[in-house]
Amino acid sequence: MKPNAHSTRILLTAILIGIGADRLFFDKQLGFSLLIFVLLFSGGLIFLARRSGTPVARHNLWLFVPLFFFAAMVGVRDNGFLATLNILAVAGLLAYLVLYYATGRVGEFGLLTAAILPTYTAAKSMVGAAPIVSQSVNIPQTIRSNRGNLFAIVRGGLLAAPLLFIFTLFLASADLFFAKQIGVLFDDRNVIYLFKLNIHGLFILGVAWLAAGGLVLALNGRDDAAALDRQITRLRRFRFLGATESTTLFILVDLLFLSFVIVQFRYLFGGHANINLDGYTYAQYARRGFVELLLVAVLSLGVILGLEAITNRQSKRQFRVFNLLSSLMIILVIIMLVSAFRRMRLYEATFGYTELRLYVCVFMIWLGLFLAWFIFGLWRRPDRFALGALIIGMGVLVTVNLLNPEAFIVRQNIARYQAGGKLDAYYLKSLSADAVPALVAAMKSKEGAQGKIISPLCPDQSSRVPKACELSLSQGLREDLRRRFQTLRSDSRWRHWQSFRLSKWLAYQQLSKVF
To answer: Cα angle vertex 405, ends 404, 411, to 5°?
Structure first.
């Protein structure tokens, strides 16, 4: 195949991707448009690979599954934070797909390499587009062959500019209809239209440029990820810490963690009585500690990875001692993580659920699995550690997407309220369309034994209670849902096919039956 023909095919495919991105994203809310774009890019990549005869690394094709899932969830969930996480996951997985579509094996790299790969891919794509454009259009030759004509056209345009201005003024003064047409030509709306047209063009060219570089990177047949990992490994060859120093550090930290764990066993398995005996209330115990313990778990992992990178180990005995002390630290951290999880659960049972509290719970569960995988990697498969980290990271996001956090929060907090607990009604009003089905169900349910509704507008103790606070839970939810329905009905942007989100459509369908 001629190089120019191959380059031209890549460039045309990239331009089509750029035009598709403009149609899908420009001045529109994200929805199922992201999944369509991912399908468009993937289709272009598969087409080019087949036409060029580029072999496909079939063992890496599993990347398509999480890529399509996270892209689809942007069109399902309405939660802003969750949508941001899904978008970042799609961007990262696209970077991995570009690097590993034709060569290499996902996971055979260090943790630092795994973190750098998306940025590295973006930079390589920006640089890699230039040769393709040059081979397809042959810009230098075009400029050389037409240099004289181009300069002549520019000179002629500069000479004509003042004459055009003067003649336009005279002709506009001579004929009112002509003057009106000139005014229409330079109307503000036309100027704005031309400005938007230029912005569209720049957007298309920017996406096309990045897509062209990514397609070249995917089809070049070089294992760029392995090359990057080798460069990072060379930077880490200088190990200045001795095995004795790292062993001493491990022993001291492990002793500290062990003393904390011994104290924690009393509270983990002793129940509420032991908490009250030591002078701490249930609320005080529940409120404190989980954030600090979570930070300890994350920092401990960083300490182990840092020591692994800088510790000079030469004998098998030194490697075994390092792995043994690292494993002991991780086991102790897992026990502390159980304590942190229990504290968070107590906190949620006492004060209710929020998005942050729910995300922290999910993260702690997966972090525990990650630490267990880390122990396995230390002793059996250190080359698979980064792959486990990647899969577990995706597992966190998959869990949160399938859980539908806002609907879960509504159900749990309403059940708590009906059992006699407090309910932050103001917080429920801040949730997105994901929560609407659960809110509608709560509005229709019989309240039974009621707790207390709290919000900034409804103080616990006040001689003057605002009129809005006199509403029951069902009345308050009805008012909020009516407002949501009016907003959805008046705002037509979410109805566009590019911005379609399933949660908003389901919310509108349910609310239209109620109101």
So the answer is: 95
Please report where in the chains the tokens 């490697």 appear, as a residue.
319
SS3 of the chain: helix, strand, coil, percent, to 5: 80, 0, 15
Select from 511, 494, 434, 507 the least CA-distant residue to 83. 434
Provide the Cα torsion 124, 125, 127, 131; round to 10°.
120
Tokens of 192: 């704005």
pLDDT tens track for 237-276: 666 778 888 888 889 998 998 888 887 776 555 545 545 5
| Contact indicator for 434, 79 with CB cutoff of 8 Å | yes
Q: List, for residues 355-378, the tens digit of each pLDDT value.
A: 888 998 898 899 888 888 888 878
- Is residue 336 within 8 A of residue 296, CB to CB? The reply is yes
Q: How far is it, in rounded angstroms, from Cα 250 to Cα 32?
A: 49
Q: Which of 440, 512, 436, 511 is nearest to 474 (CA)?
A: 440
Tell me the C-alpha distance between 278 and 99, whole Å.
57
Give the three-state DSSP class for 30: coil
- Map 90-123 to HEC letters: HHHHHHHHHHHCCCCCCCCCCHHHHHHHHHHHHH
Quote the pLDDT of residue 463: 46
**Positions in the chain whose pLDDT score sits under 50:** 1-3, 271, 274, 277, 449, 461-463, 465
Cα–Cα distance measured from residue 184 to residue 170, given in angstroms and rounded to the nearest whole number: 17
Residue 336, both tokens: 């502390």
Q: What pLDDT is stored for residue 455 in this prediction?
A: 61
Terminal Cα distance for the chain, rounded: 64
Provide the 3-class DSSP secondary structure of residue 125.
helix
Distant-in-sequence, close-in-space partners of 365: CB < 8 Å, separation ≥ 6: 341
- The span from the CA of 488 to the CA of 481, in Å, is 10
Rounded distance between C-alpha atoms, residue 84 and residue 91, angstroms: 11
Neighbours of 126 (CB within 10 A): 15
Report the sign of the C-alpha dihedral through residues 446, 448, 451, 452, in that order: positive
pLDDT at site 505: 92
Contact of 28 with 499, CB cutoff 8 Å: yes
Q: Is 377 helix (H, G, I), strand (E, B) or coil?
A: helix
pLDDT at 398: 96
CA distance 323 to 308: 9
Give the pLDDT score at 462: 47
Residue 121, φ and ψ in degrees, nearest 5: -65, -40
